[in-house]
Each structure stands twice: as structure tokens, then as C-alpha cells.
TrEMBL record:
InterPro entries: PI-PLC_domain, PLC-like_Pdiesterase_TIM-brl. Residues 1-19 form the signal peptide. GO terms for biological process: lipid metabolic process. Keywords: Signal. One of its GO terms (molecular function) is phosphoric diester hydrolase activity. This is PLC-like phosphodiesterase.
């Protein structure tokens, strides 16, 4: 009995020490540069298909941002819109296409929640990607970061000033353990940031540092590793630019009136580790094309698959520590309460919204 107690205590001590020395859930990642690992990202992380939104079919995730982070997600994306309150004041909210249809609340509130998670998880590096839908200035967005207090964790590249001026990507990124040691554990990209702020130099224009493949896919055969944004890149020039590759890997489904919504029914295949159209196969294919795994992969309904399996394989992580387990189930929308709102139908870049008012259909498209 005594020996068993000693063994149990030793196992607990080992687990505790391992968790303390892990970076982004694995000790093996600590010595790797930020741009040489693969970060699991959630597409439209703030827009939920859960009880809080009456299971709105426009939602891209079943779990909120802090649950996502605790389960191993390390890149959160969201759209930022200007919102006019009933009192006539202007606020900055996270809205899926239009604040009338799916409003996740103030940007500052969301950032405060992520800050609280960072406060409690000191060995993790997190990335934010904000789609700047209403072309807010760097100063405007930076004010929200300052108000939330999350800017205390902000990472600013040493070459940021020249990068913003010349449009050149940073060539060398620090290791995760260096960022953790310096407590600069938050990297923030904005798409796009036409007017950077000298007061908030940690807000980085996405397409200066990142390139993406196409995100508008409706079939498992649509996925490609070819650069789509920023325009003018091909495989060779994307590599030469030192930009990091963000691999979009999610599907849309076309509904009545040509409306597109996140394809949830196929997610078990989309987020799987193997099979045609799977996340795992796409990671392997793009790794072959570029000679290294994507720096970021972006998925809908991250828990299904689960998507993190393919990311662990890309990172060579076999025994992750410190993660919270979440269900890998898809929400059964046939038995879930229906949203009374409209459906926002695209994620990043542009959105289409359809509202049903009586027998009248109103469609609005944002570029």
C-alpha cells in the first residue's frame, strides 16, 4: 500500500512537472520557433452554434473561445464590425456579416475573456486573427486591446516597423519558450490593416506575414494548397516571401435561395485525420508542396474529428498534456431549438445575409 502511494505520488509529480514545462501542451514544442509549428485555428471562433444563439445555423463552433483554448486551439479568428447602439453610441462588436443577425458582443469583452485564460495558462502562446470588416484603424482596434488589458501579453516583432513600411514578412520568429519567458504570448494579425498604429505596433497586417489558400469550398475535392490571398502569389513566390501559410479547411453548404452555411453534416470527414477531403490528408499534401507543414490550419467545429489529431501529427506530438477533453459529437440540430434570426452565410472576406420577414426575402452582400 505504501509503495503504491509512493508510485501514485510520483506519477502525479511527473504529470505536474510535465504540464509546467510544456509549451502549447507539449514539452517538445518549447524549443521550436513560432513559425515552425502548426497551430490549430478555429474559423469564426466567436460565432457559436449553441444554446446562447438558439443553435443559429450561421455558427461555426459548438464551444466558446476559452473552451476552445483549453482543448488545444491556439488560433482564434473573428470578424470585427462597427455597431451603433440604441443610444447612438458607436461600439466595436464581433458580428457574423452583420450585427443584426449574429452578434457575439463587444470586442473588448471577448478580449477580456481571452486575457483571463492567458492569466491562468502561463505556458501557452495564442494567436488572434481579426477580420477588419469595417476598416477600423490600428489605433481604434488597439484601444480595445488596451481597455481589456490583454495588450500586456502582446508580441511585437523586432522588425515590425520596417515590415509594415516595406511589406516584407518577418524572417525569424522566436521560439515558444522565448515568448513564454518574455511573457509576450499573444500574436495578433488583422486582415487588413491599412493604417497601422505606432502606439499599438503589435497589431500586424495579416497579409504582410501570412498567405492563405482559398476558403470558399463546397466539395471535398475543392481543397487546394495554391495561394489565394494576398493576390499575385504562387507557390514559389509565397515561399520566397517568408510568409507563413494559413490553410483554410472547412466547407460551405448551399441551402435554399443559394444561401451558404457552414457544412456541419460533413464535418466528421472534413476534420478527420485521414480519407478524401480530410484535414489530415490536406496537411500532408500541403506539407509536401511547401516542404513544411502549414503554420496555421483553420477549421469549423474543431472538436469534431477531432481536428487536433492532425495538428499533433504535423507537430510530432504524441502525448499532449494539460488539455481539456470535449465531446467530439456534432450537435443534432433536428432536436435543437431553432434560431429566429437570419442566416449569415460566409465566414471571412465577405458575407451574405438573408432575413425572412413574412414572405419577403431580403439579401445583402458585403465585399
Amino acid at each position: 500500500m505504501f509503495i503504491r502511494s509512493i508510485l501514485q505520488a510520483s506519477a502525479l509529480l511527473y504529470t505536474t512537472v510535465t504540464a509546467q514545462t510544456a509549451c502549447n501542451n507539449s514539452p517538445s514544442l518549447c524549443s521550436k520557433p513560432y513559425n515552425n509549428i502548426t497551430h490549430l485555428g478555429t474559423h469564426n471562433a466567436a460565432f457559436l452554434r449553441d444554446a446562447s444563439t438558439s443553435f443559429n445555423t450561421a455558427g461555426n463552433q459548438f464551444y466558446n473561445a476559452t473552451v476552445q483554448l483549453s482543448a488545444g486551439v491556439r488560433l482564434l479568428t473573428a470578424q470585427v464590425h462597427q455597431f451603433n447602439t440604441s443610444s447612438g453610441q458607436s461600439e466595436w462588436h464581433l458580428c457574423h456579416g452583420d450585427c443584426k443577425f449574429l452578434d457575439a458582443g463587444p470586442l473588448e469583452t471577448w478580449l477580456s475573456e481571452i486575457k483571463s485564460w492567458l492569466d491562468a495558462n502561463t505556458n501557452d502562446v495564442v494567436t488572434l486573427l481579426l477580420v477588419n470588416s469595417d476598416r477600423a484603424s490600428g489605433s481604434t482596434i488597439g484601444t480595445q486591446f488596451s481597455a481589456s488589458g490583454i495588450d500586456k501579453y502582446a508580441y511585437t516583432p523586432s522588425s515590425n516597423s520596417s515590415s509594415q513600411q516595406t511589406g516584407a514578412a518577418q524572417q525569424t520568429w522566436p521560439t515558444l519558450e522565448s515568448m513564454i519567458s518574455n511573457n509576450t504570448r499573444l500574436v495578433t494579425f488583422v486582415a487588413s490593416l491599412s493604417t497601422p498604429s505606432p502606439q499599438h505596433p503589435y497589431l500586424l497586417d495579416e497579409f504582410t506575414h501570412v498567405f492563405e489558400n482559398d476558403f470558399e469550398n463546397e466539395s471535398p475535392t475543392d481543397y487546394t494548397c495554391t495561394p489565394h490571398r494576398p493576390s499575385g502569389l504562387n507557390t514559389e513566390t509565397a515561399l520566397e516571401s517568408n510568409r507563413m501559410f494559413l490553410m483554410n479547411h472547412f466547407l460551405y453548404s448551399t441551402q435554399t435561395f443559394g444561401i451558404q452555411t457552414p457544412n456541419v453534416t460533413y464535418t466528421t470527414v472534413t476534420n478527420a485525420a485521414s480519407g478524401e477531403g480530410s484535414l489530415g490528408e490536406s496537411v500532408l499534401e500541403c506539407s509536401s508542396v511547401y516542404g513544411k507543414a502549414p503554420t496555421f490550419v483553420l477549421v469549423d467545429f474543431f472538436n469534431v474529428g477531432p481536428a487536433v489529431q492532425s495538428v499533433d501529427r504535423a507537430n510530432g506530438v504524441q502525448s499532449a498534456v494539460g488539455r481539456k477533453e470535449v465531446s467530439a459529437d456534432i450537435v443534432d440540430e433536428r432536436t435543437a431549438p431553432k434560431s429566429s434570426g437570419g442566416a449569415v452565410v460566409r465566414g471571412r472576406g465577405k458575407a451574405s445575409v438573408v432575413a425572412l420577414v413574412g414572405a419577403v426575402v431580403v439579401a445583402v452582400v458585403w465585399a
